[in-house]
From TrEMBL, chain A:
InterPro entries: Acyl_CoA_acyltransferase, Autoind_synthase. Its EC number is 2.3.1.184. The keyword S-adenosyl-L-methionine applies. One of its GO terms (biological process) is quorum sensing. This is Acyl-homoserine-lactone synthase. GO terms for molecular function: N-acyl homoserine lactone synthase activity. The lineage of its organism: Bacteria, Pseudomonadati, Pseudomonadota, Alphaproteobacteria, Rhodobacterales. Belongs to the autoinducer synthase family. The keyword Amino-acid biosynthesis does not apply.
From TrEMBL, chain B:
This is DNA-binding transcriptional regulator, CsgD family. One of its GO terms (molecular function) is DNA binding. The lineage of its organism: Bacteria, Pseudomonadati, Pseudomonadota, Alphaproteobacteria, Rhodobacterales. InterPro entries: Sig_transdc_resp-reg_C-effctor, TF_LuxR_autoind-bd_dom, TF_LuxR_autoind-bd_dom_sf, Tscrpt_reg_LuxR_C, WH-like_DNA-bd_sf. GO terms for biological process: regulation of DNA-templated transcription. Gene3D superfamilies: Transcription factor LuxR-like, autoinducer-binding domain, Winged helix-like DNA-binding domain superfamily/Winged helix DNA-binding domain.
Length: 212, 237
């Protein structure tokens, strides 16, 4: 299932949180060779994790991390504005209606459809909170994955070549793209909506279908 | 006649004292024809400031009872950055229910929509619209107006930060050459598609550049942003 958790809520899900930071180390340091900091516990964290970001996490049936991304409003500190402004034509992207999405991560052994499930969840955030766009930093491998799930971003700029290529891209919400991504994820739009509403306090609508 | 949003935003921007925030909250309440507009701010040094249309009796009661610690809106919004409908908060505890009942007795409406804002150095603020109406009417209202409300909440916060005692005001965020190009072409009447082609960028990218420029100019929409950019000499047409 999809969980939406602010950093200060992660302690309620210790297994999920720990496996997310371990999988991030595995993806960004081991597989991509990015210069990221991995602590003695083997977890990858950076300054932006200290800004109380909102994590969108695919939780595997066992309670471990299957994939995740990290959201922050662009009116605060963001990775794109701090480190990649040369890839955005020098434009400091800043608006309460634009959020940043970074550290898109997939666990090695996660189910197919995880990336699509995360994009679907991203769509819930855009629709649910009146956000217009996500701006995000992603690696070369993700270009193909985003295309496969029908959610290719508009690329603002890229640096590096081959697997070292890092890009800044933009996503926005359209109901058509959302339907495409839902089909790829194998998750019904109702289920996706229910996870979102569950996370942000609304009573789950499907409750009456369950045993009392 | 109710004041226009453009006009309210303009007045807020020109305010030179905190009374300007109060005036703007009253004007917004009248504009939206709702029960209340409230802005509540905790500065980086922990000082609190509030303005808005709640009755002085309720504000006094709230402060005297230290309801900050009971109020589910504050607990539900603190350190977050997504807008929150009050219905989605946890009102189940006895203290919360008693608090809500009392708030209603003091004229607070049953519906609320609060936008948390995280400023620099731990500054935190809440901008709230409150009304008395059905769930359905409220859902329609928030869905229709939430983007403007988000923009307004940031305008309030910007002004509060500017007026914070002892604070050197932040220089207004300058537009980059690319944003200036985009705004200039919009100003001379190009369509978005034409601007995108001229600048060799996608229309989505253009939308993001215009949105960033709108935010930096403190405008409500693109038309307003173009007018402000011209008035300030940021663009020349």
């Amino acid at each position: 299932m999809i969980r939406y958790l602010y950093a200060n809520q992660l302690h309620q899900f210790p297994k999920l949180a720990r496996s997310m930071f371990l999988d991030r180390a595995d993806q960004f340091k081991e597989r991509l060779g990015w210069e990221v900091a991995v602590d003695r516990a083997g977890e990858e964290r950076d300054d932006y994790d200290d800004q109380n970001p909102l994590y969108v996490i695919w939780e595997k049936p066992c309670g471990g991390h299957g994939g995740s991304m990290r959201l922050l409003p662009t009116v605060g500190r963001t990775m794109v504005n701090d480190h990649f402004i040369h890839l955005t034509d020098g434009v400091r992207i800043e608006s309460p209606l634009i959020w940043e999405c970074t550290r898109f991560c997939l666990a090695r052994d996660t189910a197919p459809g995880t990336a699509a499930a995360l994009m679907l969840a991203g769509g819930e955030v855009l629709r649910g909170f009146g956000v217009e766009h996500f701006v995000g930093v992603f690696d070369a491998r993700m270009v193909r994955i985003y295309r496969h799930i029908g959610a290719s971003p508009d690329i603002l700029g890229s640096q590096g070549e081959g697997r070292d290529r890092i890009s800044v891209g933009l996503w926005n919400f359209s109901p058509e793209a959302q339907a495409r991504v839902a089909a790829r994820a194998g998750i019904s739009p109702d289920m996706s909506r229910m996870w979102f509403e569950h996370a942000f306090g609304q009573e789950p609508r499907l409750r009456k279908n369950r045993a009392a | 006649m109710t004041p226009s949003l453009d006009g309210i935003l303009q007045q807020l921007e020109c305010a030179e004292a905190l009374e300007g925030l109060q005036t703007a909250s009253v004007a917004l309440r009248d504009h939206y024809n709702v029960a209340h507009i409230v802005y509540h701010w905790v500065s980086s040094s922990g000082q609190q400031y509030g303005c808005g249309t709640y009755s002085p009796e309720w504000v006094a009661r709230y402060v005297e009872q230290a309801y900050l610690r009971v109020d589910p809106v504050v607990a539900g919004c603190y350190q977050k950055f997504h807008p929150v409908d009050w219905k989605r908060l946890d009102w189940s505890s006895k203290a919360s229910r008693a608090f809500q009942k009392e708030a209603i007795e003091y004229g607070v409406g049953n519906q609320g929509f609060s936008i948390p804002i995280r400023g620099p150095n731990g500054q935190f603020a809440l901008f709230t619209v409150n009304n008395d109406c059905s769930d359905e009417d409220w859902a329609n209202f928030t869905e229709t107006h939430r983007q403007h409300l988000i923009i307004l909440s940031h305008a309030f916060n910007q002004k509060a930060l500017e007026l914070e005692p002892g604070r050197t005001p932040l220089a207004a965020q300058a537009l980059s050459p690319r944003e200036i190009d985009a705004m200039t072409l919009i100003a001379v009447g190009y369509s978005r598609a034409q601007v995108a082609v001229t600048l060799s960028i996608s229309e989505n990218t253009l939308r993001v550049y215009i949105e960033s420029a709108r935010h930096k100019l403190g405008a409500l929409n693109t038309t307003h942003a173009v007018a402000k950019a011209i008035a300030r000499g940021v663009i020349v047409v």
